[in-house]
Amino acid sequence: MRRIALFALSIVTMLSATSALAAPAIKIGALFAVSGPASFLGEPERNTAQMVVDEINRAGGVKGRMLQLVVYDTQGDATKAVQAATRLIKEDKVAAIIGPSTTGDTMAVIPLVERAQIPLISCAAGIKITEPVKKWVFKTAQNDSLAVARIYDDLKRRNIRKVSILTVSDSFGSSGREQLKAQAARYGIQIVSDDTYGPKDTDMTSQLTKIRGSRAQAMICWGTNPGPAVIARNARQLGLRFPIYMSHGVSSKKFIELAGDAAEGIILPSGRVLVADRLPNSDRQKKSLISFVKDYQRHYRAEGDHFGGHAWDAVMLLKGAIERGGDSPAAIRNQLENTRNFAGIGGVFSYTPRDHAGLNKDAFVLVEVKKKDWVLVK
């Protein structure tokens, strides 16, 4: 009898295993600017998302089911982003979407995911993505409002009151410019010069010459590569000697490569991933950060950066939501909104019905370029 019982148990176990293997994969959509001017964002995001999904699947998937990542390249084009999102929802039947890489692409697809009731976790930074709150939209990139606060904190500490701002004329730059102007008075900051540059501009000497003639004690440049690197080189050529701050939009080694020697001394707010090995062991994110950096280096022979971290967080947040509530879009959305104290790459996330960004000012540290590397600003 015992042999019969053991045989029956083995049959049940085998059937259960076969059933698990036969279970359809959970499809996760991804919209990244893998090519085009924003590829420095989208390529590490795509790489990281695939790396994390592969690792989850090797470990047995989520509740015994594999994840299938369906990636489309938006090329940083809002029209292409909408077309790809439509395909993910109507043809691929995904349970959730991560990305897009940019604020403009994200804002373009928000009406679509809201109508379809598919959860979206954006990897872009614009505060308008989640303010006001949209029921089906979350984000992992730190809000530009938090980045501005970090910069202004440092200016106040240095007793710098008069600044010039130079922002790129796209969605990311416009959002940053709004926050720079909105928060200035609170920190006792006076903006003495306010100028813009185009995303494809290759020389900003004229804007910087005006700034040199202003009463500015520091300059804040807001944009994504390659423009800020051009500005850094132009500023060096003009001999500007005041402190230069950049936005978190250039928070990767790519900026240092593009700016060369002109990057030296530039300060910017960043997620902790750029200085992971310099963090104290008590830092709640350090374990995840070190693991991410090593995994990315092993897979792609490059350093994991701030932008790839946004995709790491998005995939892991989805994994947790599916584990707790199942794979239906509604269940994923509800569990995302109930996520608390998730120590990821971009910060420690706590979403609520009133906050779909989930981070505070502590998600940023200030870093400075010294000897072609990032160091913490103490």
Describe the structure.
This protein is α/β, with parallel strands linked by helices. The protein has 2 domains: 210 residues, Response regulator (Rossmann fold); 125 residues, 3-Layer(aba) Sandwich (Rossmann fold), CATH 3.40.50.2300. It contains 12 helices and 14 strands. Strands 2-1-3-4-5 form a 5-stranded parallel β-sheet, with helices on both faces. Strands 7-6-8-9 form a 4-stranded parallel β-sheet, sandwiched between helices. The radius of gyration is 22 Å and the shape is globular. It starts with a helix and ends with a strand. 49% of the residues are buried. About 4% of the residues have low confidence.
Q: How are the SSEs ordered, and which strands pair?
A:
Blueprint: H1 2-22, E1 26-32, H2 39-58, E2 67-73, H3 78-90, E3 96-98, H4 103-116, E4 120-122, E5 137-139, H5 144-157, E6 162-168, H6 171-184, E7 190-197, H7 205-212, E8 218-222, H8 227-238, E9 244-246, H9 253-259, E10 267-270, H10 286-300, H11 306-325, H12 329-337, E11 342-343, E12 348-349, E13 365-370, E14 373-376
Defining key terms:
four-stranded parallel β-sheet, Rossmann fold, five-stranded parallel β-sheet, 378 residues, alpha/beta, 12 helices, 2 domains, 14 strands
Gyration radius, in Å: 22 Å
Mean pLDDT: 93
Element string (H = helix, E = strand): HEHEHEHEEHEHEHEHEHEHHHEEEE
The H-level CATH homologous superfamily of the largest domain, spelled out, is: Response regulator
Low-pLDDT runs: 4-9, 11-20
Shape: globular
CATH top level of the largest domain?
Answer: Alpha Beta
Query: How does the helix and strand content classify structurally?
Result: alpha/beta
For the sheet with most strands, the description reads: 5 strands, parallel
CATH architecture of the largest domain: 3-Layer(aba) Sandwich
User: What is the tally of beta strands?
Assistant: 14
End-to-end distance: 72 Å
Note the beta-strand portion.
15-25%
Number of structurally distinct domains: 2
Main sheet: strand order: 2-1-3-4-5
Kindly identify the CATH topology of the largest domain.
Answer: Rossmann fold
Number of helices: 12
Indicate the percent of residues in helices.
40-55%
